Amino acid sequence: MHLIVTILMSVLLPKAYSLKCFECTPGQSGACTDKQIDCRNPAQCGNARITTYMGDTKLLDVNAKSCAVPTECFSAAVNFGISRTTIASKCCNTDLCNSQSVPESTKPTPNGKKCFTCTGTDCTSALSCLGDEDRCISTSVNTGGKKMTMKGCASKRICVGEVSGALGPAMGVDMKCCEGNLCNNAQSIGLSLLLLVTSMVSVALFH
């Protein structure tokens, strides 16, 4: 978990050393302590929050703070049906302005787009995408010598840019996104529920 958070923070909140900001990078327990750091221009102060849900149950809730650049402060989500992860990072530009954590987002409404998702070994079900999830996604992860595939909906920022670029090289994740309804095809994939959830959490946070 510490490796996952470290990778994510290096993407969303890159350090730059003078604006004073709080820094807080969660360890394995998920907890951290604020400390003050100096950030060089054009850096701003940043907050990031990553939350993963399985149905209505919260599986993971991680908050972090550091220096940031404006282009890396955004909101995005990846939704595999059985679980959904939201990523929210915000910037501000006054000394120590990132003292408060990013508020937890509310569940958005369906946006009309549909993508294939997997239920057990069947990947032929249609999933209604939510909020700004405007892409269909298929991901493959090698875990314990086994290749697992997940399908669902994702925001554009999951599929392009720094977040997507950090996933593959760091964790061996193969992600493919497309823009049409049900464009992530309906291949049937065999994988266990436990492995699906584990991989989904990893993918969402690697990102």
Helix amount, in percent?
Answer: 10-25%
The number of strands is: 11
Structural class: alpha+beta
**Mean model confidence by pLDDT:** 77
- Show unreliable segments: 188-207
Task: Spell the H/E element sequence.
Answer: HEEEEEEEEEEHHEH
Rg over CA atoms, rounded to whole Å, is 17 Å
Number of domains: 2
Task: Give me the CATH fold name of the largest domain.
Answer: CD59
Percentage beta strand: 35-45%
Summed up, the helix count is: 4
For the biggest β-sheet, the strand order reads: 4-3-6-5-10-9-11
CATH class of the largest domain: Mainly Beta
Under the CATH scheme, which architecture of the largest domain would be assigned? Ribbon
Shape: elongated
What is the assigned CATH homologous superfamily of the largest domain? CD59
Task: Describe what you observe in this structure.
This protein is of the alpha+beta class and 207 residues long. 19% of the residues lie in helices and 43% in strands. The chain has a seven-stranded antiparallel β-sheet. The longest helix has 14 residues. The two termini are 13 Å apart. The C terminus is likely disordered.
Task: Describe the protein's topology.
Blueprint: H1 2-12, E1 19-23, E2 35-39, E3 44-54, E4 57-68, E5 75-79, E6 84-92, E7 110-119, E8 122-130, E9 135-143, E10 146-154, H2 156-159, H3 162-171, E11 173-178, H4 193-206
Antiparallel strand pairs: 1-2, 3-4, 3-6, 5-6, 5-10, 7-8, 9-10, 9-11
